[in-house]
Amino acid sequence: EAGVTQSPTHLIKTRGQQATLRCSPISGHTSVYWYQQALGLGLQFLLWYDEGEERNRGNFPPRFSGRQFPNYSSELNVNALELEDSALYLCASSLPGQGARTQYFGPGTRLTVL
Amino acid sequence: QKEVEQNSGPLSVPEGAIASLNCTYSDRGSQSFFWYRQYSGKSPELIMFIYSNGDKEDGRFTAQLNKASQYVSLLIRDSQPSDSATYLCAVSTSGGSYIPTFGRGTSLIVHP
Fold first, then answer.
1. In this predicted structure, what is the pLDDT of residue A98?
2. Sequential DSSP letters for A19-40
3. Predicted local confidence at residue B94, as pLDDT
């Protein structure tokens, strides 16, 4: 069974640009979570999508947004990039209603903002 | 604000020893507790979860939960060099929110 996939693996942008990160969940998983893992800060929750709807949002500014498509894949958009947005962005998926008990992470996208 | 605290380490143990990783949390309403293992350059992998006070064993891993003390721990018996990784503790509440709050992780080094 294929795991959670993310693209691209690495992304280099300059300050002020926009970044788009993509995630495909495990087959049968309807929930998608986005996390930011910056150096020294640990995993910070960004967004949770389930059945195409945004269910919860972490303490991040509105320039972090996303969406979930009918096939449950998801996209994270970061507008007006700032240097401190440089981090590993992790996507995770889980079964309906199971939350972290069945949460599997993708390999991540390393975003570097210059 | 919900907080999950872990000693950043590194915790260094010899091969074959028991490694004990600890985590405290601030939200008394927390009901679900998770341990993830993250190898350097890789994504986190769920290795244990526990809901009830007491111990839960899975192979060489034992999770221990004490809700009164707001404390959860992970014991790794017969530690192997392949256990060297960062271990993340995560805590979530019920009530429809399945979003775990993560600690910053403890680095474990198992030396031969």
1. 78
2. EEEEEEPPTT--EEEEEEEETT
3. 64
* A43–B102 CB contact, under 8 Å: yes
The pLDDT of residue A1 is 65
Joined together, the tokens standing for residue A16 give: 């002020």
pLDDT digits (tens, 9 = 90+) for A6-49: 999 999 999 999 999 999 999 999 999 999 999 878 899 999 99
Q: Is the dihedral of CA B74, B76, B80, B82 positive or negative?
A: negative
Residues 51-90 of chain A with CB under 8 A from chain B are: 56, 58, 90
Nearest to B17 by CA among B73, B79, B85, B59: B79
B46 vs chain A: nearest CA distance in angstroms? Answer: 7
Q: Is B83 helix (H, G, I), strand (E, B) or coil?
A: helix
The string of pLDDT tens digits covering residues A67-101 is: 999 999 999 999 999 999 999 999 999 988 777 77
Q: Do B46 and A103 touch (CB under 8 A)?
A: yes
Residue A107: count other Cβ atoms within 10 Å of its Cβ.
17
Per CB-CB distance under 8 Å, the chain B contacts of A107 are 42-43
Task: Report whether B91 contacts B25 (CB < 8 A).
Answer: yes
Confidence bin at B96 (pLDDT 50/70/90): very low
d(CA A13, CA A83): 10
